[in-house]
Fold this protein.
Amino acid sequence: MGVLSQLSGVIAGIIGIIFTIFLTFIVMEINPGNEKMQKISKAIQVGARAFLFSEYKILYLIVFAFSLILGFSNSWIMALSFVFGATLSVLAGFFGMSIATRANTRTANEAQSSLARALKVAFNGGAVMGMTVTSLGLFGLGLTFFLTGGDTIVLSGYAMGASFVALFARVGGGIFTKAADVGADLVGKTEAGIPEDDPRNPATIADNVGDNVGDVAGMGADLYESYVGSIFSASVLGALMFDVKGAVFPFLIAAFGLISSIIGIIIVNISIKEKENLDPSKMLHLGTYAANVIELIIIFVLSKLILDTFQAALVITLGMIVGILIGSITEYYTAKKPIEKLASTATSGSAPLLINGMALGMESTAIPVILIGIATIVSFSLLGLFGIALAAVGMLSTLGITLAIDAYGPIADNAGGIAEMSGLDPKVRERTDLLDSVGNTTAAIGKGFAIGSATLTALALFASYIQVTGISMVDLNDPNVFVGALVGAMLPFLFSALTMKAVGDSANIMVNEVRRQFKVIPGLMEGKAEPDYAKCVEIATAGSLKKMTLPSLLAVFSPIIIYFLLGKVAVAGTLAGTTVAGVMLAIFMSNSGGAWDNAKKYIETGKYGGKGSMAHKASVIGDTVGDPFKDTAGPAINILIKLMSIVSIVVIPILMNLFE
Amino acid sequence: MGVLSQLSGVIAGIIGIIFTIFLTFIVMEINPGNEKMQKISKAIQVGARAFLFSEYKILYLIVFAFSLILGFSNSWIMALSFVFGATLSVLAGFFGMSIATRANTRTANEAQSSLARALKVAFNGGAVMGMTVTSLGLFGLGLTFFLTGGDTIVLSGYAMGASFVALFARVGGGIFTKAADVGADLVGKTEAGIPEDDPRNPATIADNVGDNVGDVAGMGADLYESYVGSIFSASVLGALMFDVKGAVFPFLIAAFGLISSIIGIIIVNISIKEKENLDPSKMLHLGTYAANVIELIIIFVLSKLILDTFQAALVITLGMIVGILIGSITEYYTAKKPIEKLASTATSGSAPLLINGMALGMESTAIPVILIGIATIVSFSLLGLFGIALAAVGMLSTLGITLAIDAYGPIADNAGGIAEMSGLDPKVRERTDLLDSVGNTTAAIGKGFAIGSATLTALALFASYIQVTGISMVDLNDPNVFVGALVGAMLPFLFSALTMKAVGDSANIMVNEVRRQFKVIPGLMEGKAEPDYAKCVEIATAGSLKKMTLPSLLAVFSPIIIYFLLGKVAVAGTLAGTTVAGVMLAIFMSNSGGAWDNAKKYIETGKYGGKGSMAHKASVIGDTVGDPFKDTAGPAINILIKLMSIVSIVVIPILMNLFE
């Protein structure tokens, strides 16, 4: 293999970074709007930054402690790559979110003149996130690969760094955003009777901050780890099968996927033109499909050239198809006919809505699991474990553009909030709402890729664990393995319980603070005095940071405890148990939550009595219950599964060296 | 082994049947109360019988079809034992419920004179259920064992018959009881504004019928299958380790457990004396503990005498301790401090109550799973797979008395309803309420035994499956096995979705029928005309029967489909996946449901504003959501797990013969 191939990740990463800087300039040169808008946007920026800094403080305490242990017990290079992987993730999340919190007010401002212009800013703001995450992820992992000659142990340190940050960011951000959301709604809307996003509500800035730290920074860190994890495991398994060619191949796929994403992003920008009845979903779809088609063509060429077989390309094609199908199923359950039926049950009250919504989420696990099963079996029969890992890489290779669309939604959402708070023309809000709703639908493909790739990557990491520990088999007929699997299956439930309780507790503290401010700040309700926004941000920050550590440490220490009690084979059982139960719980919670959210929105379009009706009240309860499901516990479980795997890959061999 | 030992199950079964007849006479000779009470009780009896007959019709259609397939493809003796196992379960459920529906009015009548007398009838009514289930179960399995010389294949047919009936009875009864409950409440209480159990409500008889077919007959069939399943798997695994001694040992344990239960029941009857401040829980506990202590002493003697080791006794002791601990944990989460905290969240509305209730249920999976893990590992290290199966038999050996206490609750509950409907002195209702609440607490031990034994039996059945199919290992590193496990983990979610949706749909039809009757029957609201109770019973019957078949067939056909697609080893993966995910889901759903129920009751004692307060309204929603959790989906999952295992044990070897 030429040096160029081995450096492909680094080169593509650098190209991506340059393109990101270019995109950033495009976004930043847009007029950020009037003083009021800028002030609101600034408050959101400051709050979000404050939260991230506090989060990083705790995170780095744990990261450094862990890296010291790694350094002393194993190797300092690995410890370094661990910190490196974590730091690039932190940078990606921080930078992406910084631009997102600046794109929001610009989107609102552009929406005053036209939908097309607003679409362009919001999309480019999201694209910065997408490109930052993929460029930094690929650059860092590629550099580590190149410098160490593809050393599995050092690479696993990098991947673990990514997983660490992802879990903290998802859990911390998830708790923050829902605590602020519930706190703002319960006191502001229900008790004080002021509208949503009203500047008199002390928690309103915290609420908008939450959208950014949860939906933008949290999601960024999440997908950074998926991306890195899939490339890492494919590279390790590829090396076993095709030697250095196999190890490099996933990097090449990712590198060209990054370039394809850039092309897709450019296509979206070119195709957005001023016209009547602009349909934003067309351009977003065009860009996504173009990127994937270009990537696929390149993959077929690479597959033949490098591995001398089309099977790798077939596996990746299959992965992409399955990802798109899972996305469609997810969309079907959370946005199509089932939602209309679900919304109709709200007319009998919240209990039927809740029962049916949970049934819907549970039912929605069936087809995705079968699709993943098919992808697994076929990939394995074509290319062994390497095939499974490659299918995941294929799904995530165009993450640059799919994440752009994911992150574009919250930007449009935030823009709507700013438009409302600063009293812009209602037409502006209409436009941002349209952008937001289009984003939700177009994001379905990205969601499908995320679910599918997470499960396949978990499978690949499971295989890597078996390989690094030298286990010959994981026999379920061995009671240690079965008990390991039982305990493993329990962990996602316990983890979800802890995160959901954290949301409840933090929301409670927020409620009390908002009540306090309404009482003690004179002139607040009359709009003469300003609320103490920062205090609410502080409270949400403190609450979520205090509560995020325990569930995160659960992921880190469970495999270690199982190792000492039941041995390394039982750890494999635990990983399998966590994976199979966790995947179901994650799909169930995400889709139930999404379904309740959309059932509420459907009723708000005037169905079943519309806003203010009994059905609407019931649907608000459903939506509130669904919030921690879909934005806190659900998505964090995917990271839990992978973090446990990667910790096992890193730590158990070290423990084996020390104790066996 | 002497013939007497080999016949121990049959002999104990016959003794149990004689004792049951004796108990039945004791219950039946009590005065059933005045005409009105008898009329109500009669209506419940007729409705319950009508439902069971319709259910059995469908059930036998499927049982006969399946037995024909078994007969033609394998052996007619096995087909016969399958029908035999199913029929004895049907008889046990039917007879036990018949007495329960007669004990209710007698309890109400006795409660007019004293608490002690009411306690005696209610307990003896429950004891009939407990003794019928254990006597018939042990007699039938023992007879099959004796006649076939312990043939595994034929015995597995018997166990499958038990599982078949259990799933249908649990699912069908579970849908019926909740459809009627919700239907009666939504229209009667909320729309028409008449009190609970009011005779003018057309669905009120259906509601009481539901308690009997769900909580009594459904639970009876459920525990019949647990009992039979545990003895069967222990016998099969015992034969592998100790030859005929090992095969007979579980029957001896069960036989002496049955005798111990009789002694316990007699002790309860003797210790109930007329006195001030009678505390019923003391007598119930006394009987339970006495039965278990006697049984344990016998087990230590038998263990040494027959197997020449105390290890079997140690394993069973461990099983009992773990069962009691799981029961205490369950009680802690659903009745102690966590409930007070949960109830407090209802003051902020139903959404926080629902979120926290779900978190509570998910958290409550942790300790039971760890306890089961300990029991598994220790039992295995002492006596191998036989040890695991024996621990389950130990927990269920005194099922006669623990089930008596389980079934006594619904009888006291029904008695309260009859007292209310026929306008007896409020003091009567107070007494029956006290009996009911004591029953709920004392039943905790039984619940712990049920959860613990179900998981251990599932493990033992898993091992039996591996043994009968001659698989050498079930390697999770084989993608077929992992995919099997993924699909297996999905099944309990899909199954729960189907059953919960069935409750919702059937409740809907019921609501419409009650509304219709209020409209078209003149003079109904004035009490001048009688509602058409039978029609409501019919509707709940039709609805639940139509909906019970699909989820039940899911359990039967999934392993077969997996076999054809992925092979016999993947089926083992599926069973493991279903077990580990299903156990968590079952504990979560049961405990969340129980917690919401008790949080509502706690608020109704006057806490947080008491009845009619905002918190109470929220808690009613929580309770309604929890109903299908704890009474339909939750308990049925345990049977799903075991039915899938037993179907695999029976069917896969047949398919292997045909196709391999």
Observations:
- Chain A has a mean pLDDT of 90.
- Chain A is about 85% helix and 0% strand.
- Residues 204-271 of chain A form the longest helix (68 residues).
- Residues 242 and 307 of chain A are 8 Å apart (CA to CA).
